[in-house]
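CORE FACILITY INTAKE
Project code: CF-77B
Contact: R.S. (postdoc)
Sample description: multi-component assembly, two entities in total
Requested service: structural model of the whole complex
Turnaround: standard
Below are the sequence entries exactly as provided by the requester. Do not edit them.
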Amino acid sequence: MTGRTAVLTGMGVVAPNGIGADDFWKATREGRSVLAPIDREGCDRYPVRVAGLVRGFDAASFVEERYLVQTDRFTHFAMAAAGLALDEAGLTVDDPFGIGVVTAAGSGGGAFGQRELQELWSRGPHHVGPYQSIAWFYAASTGQISIRGGFKGPCGVVASDEAGGLDALAHAARAIRRGTEAVVAGAAEAPIAPYSMVCQLGYPGLSTEERPERAYLPFAPDAPGFVPAEGGAMFVVESESAARARGARIRAQLAGHAATFTGAARWAESRAGLAHAVRGALAEARCAPDEIDVVFADALGVPEADRAEALALADALGDHSARVPVTAPKAGVGRAHCGAPVLDVAAAVLALENGLVPPTPNVTTSDLGLDLVTGFARSAELRTALVLSRGLMGSNAALVLRRTP
Amino acid sequence: MTPVLSYDELAVLIKARAGIQVDPMDLERPGASFDEFGIDSLGLLGVVGELENRHGVQIPADAVTHKTPADFVAAVNSAVKAGA
C-alpha cells in the first residue's frame, strides 16, 4: 500500500449507552439496551414513544461556555466527541492548514432553532439572538470544531442522508490521500426535541411500539420499525505513514468505501444499491468477500428493508453471507440519523481490537439466513469489518475497516 | 450624568449573551480590545439586542463594529441618551 492510507488514530463517542469509548464499549459488548420511554419535555405526546436518549451529558465539562451559548445540542455532542478523539490522538497543530474537519448531518439544531422561533412569535424579532443565524444549520458542528481547534484545512459537511455518516469518513480519507495531514470526521445528532420529533413523524418506518424491549427488533419477523436516537462519534483520520512517524496508536484502517442512491423508502431497490456499495467498498479495500469477518448491519427494523439487506449481503458476499457473523448493536440504542453509522464504526473498531462481536440487543429470532449474533458477544478472530448504512431517503453506503498489525 | 451602560453591566451581558467570562476592570483598562477576550461581532450583536430590549431604544447597527469596550460603551450611552 502507499503511504497515504487513511487510518483512525482517535475516537470520541457520545452515545445513549455511554459517553466515552470505554463506557460505550462496555454497554455494547454486554448487549445492554438503553431504549426507554421518551420523557423529555415537549416530546412525550407524539405517537413515537421510545427512543435512545443520551443521559447525564454535561456539555460544560467538555466545551467552553462561549461555544455552548452559540450552539445546539447536536454541536455540543460533536464538539465533545471531537475533543475526546483529539485528546486520544495526541495531534499537535504544527500547520493549521494541514488539518480539516468534516461532519455529516441530517437533523440540524432543532432545539436551538425552536427556542429562538418561540421568542420570535411570543416576544418579537428583537428577542431572537444572533446565533440563530448559525446554530441550527447543518454546517454548525464542522465550523465550530474548526474554529475551536484552529483547523484551517479542507472543511465540509456531508448532507447525504443517514448513510452520510460513512460518507463523511470516506470524504476524510480522500482528503488524506490528496495530502491533508489529518481530518476530524464523524457525525452527531440531537433529534429528540419537539420540532425535530415532529419532522420525523411522517416516516412510515418509525416504530410506535410503546414497550422499549419490543420497539426496535431488526431482522425479527415481527419487527415494528425503528427507534430514533441522539448522539454520535467523531474520529481523527490521518495518513498511516504520518501516524506511524509520530508514534500514534493506529486503531483501524479505512480500507474501502462506496455509496449508491436508490430512492426514498424503496427498500426492495435498496438491495441492489447496497450490494453495489458493498462490492465497491470491497474492491477499493482489495478485499475478497470471505475476508470479511463481521458485518455491522444497517438493520432498519422494517421487515421489507431487513429482507433487502439480507439479500444484498447474499448478492455481494455469496455463500459467505450465511457464515459471517452479522450484528446490529444499534438495536439497543436506536438510530441517531448520521450518528448511527459512525457509532457502528466505533463499535466495529472496538470489536476488531477486542476480538469480540457484540450482540444485537432485544432480538432473539431471525429467519433471513444470516448468522445474526444475539444474546451474548461472540469471540472471534477479527481482522476486517464491514459497516453498512442506509438512509430513509435512499442513500446506501458500505465501509470496510481493517485492523492494522 | 450617570452612564446607562457600565463596565459591570457590560461584563454581565457578555457573559450571558456570548458565554465569555471577563472582568469589568479588564474591559475598562485603556487600550483593551474585544479581540483579546475572544468577543466577536455576533457576540456583541447579542449584547446590543439585550440592551435595546432593556432600555427600549434603538442602538445604531455600527455599534458592533467598535473594536474597544470604551468606544462601544460610549456609542451605546450616546444612543441611549439620544433616545431617552
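Facility notes:
- The interface with chain B takes residues 64-70, 126-131, 133-134 of chain A (CB under 8 Å).
- Chain A has two domains: 6-245, 256-402.
Invoice: internal transfer
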